[in-house]
Design goal:
- It is a single chain.
- By secondary structure, the chain is an alpha+beta fold.
- The chain is built from five helices and ten strands, in the order E-E-H-H-E-H-H-E-E-E-E-E-E-H-E.
- The protein has helices at 35-47, 62-68, 82-96, 100-103, 169-183; strands at 15-24, 28-29, 79-81, 107-110, 113-114, 121-126, 130-137, 143-151, 155-163, 203-205.
- Helix 3 (82-96) packs across helix 5.
- The radius of gyration is 21 Å and the shape is elongated.
- The termini are far apart.
């Protein structure tokens, strides 16, 4: 029998990669949900109703809070979640009228490594963090102290993989530029879900 001719109507994906060196124009602040907090939540859930009784509060280790707030890779360096850049690029599409649903399928960020605890893909950050203690109010209105790492000067190399049938290199470059100026990454960024931000997490393309 003769093999039948097969008609292909879906072409192969054309994925290209662009490398961007970004330099912070404002401090970058990180707030990782700590493994210690997860363990405490799990312990309460497993204890059930017995967890409701009053217990002596342990002294708070603020330095441990600071260390736990950082994303540390399996190789020991600190990084920014790669997904933060991807989410920011998708969000920036609102500014130019590009469908966010298409952007979700068209832009990706290649990771430099993964978080040693929960496996989150990370982009390595260049710079030295320092501890910042902030007075805040919880959702219940009660006051609290949040300890976070802050990078006052920082940079990173971000590799963006994109669908060249949807975006050109100039498109992706301009999208990253808008992320740096108008969306931001990390805590207190301009595009924060819960506020107008604190002016943190912005950057420029070098």
């Amino acid at each position: 029998m003769k093999p039948e001719d097969i008609q292909v109507s879906i072409k192969a994906p054309k994925i290209e990669t662009a490398l961007f060196r970004i330099v912070g124009t404002a401090p970058y602040v990180q707030a990782r949900f700590s493994g210690k907090a997860k363990q405490q939540m799990a312990a309460k859930m497993m204890a059930g109703s017995t967890a409701r009784g009053k217990k002596a509060r342990e002294p708070r280790d603020f330095e441990d809070d600071y260390q736990q707030a950082m994303h540390v890779s399996t190789e020991g360096w600190v990084g920014i979640p790669a997904g933060a850049f991807r989410a920011a690029m998708i969000s920036a599409c609102r500014l130019v009228g590009f469908k966010m649903t298409l952007a979700k399928l068209s832009v990706f960020v290649a990771a430099d490594g993964i978080d040693a605890i929960d496996g989150i893909p990370l982009i390595r950050i260049n710079g030295t963090p320092e501890r910042i203690d902030m007075a805040v109010r919880n959702a219940t209105g009660g006051p609290d102290i949040r300890v976070r790492p802050i990078w006052r000067e920082w940079s990173a190399d971000v590799r963006v993989r994109y669908d060249a049938d949807q975006f050109t290199l100039n498109d992706v470059t301009n999208l990253m530029d808008r992320v740096g100026m108008q969306v931001g990454i990390g805590e207190g960024r301009p595009d924060s879900r819960q506020s107008a931000g604190l002016g943190w997490g912005t950057f420029r393309l070098e």
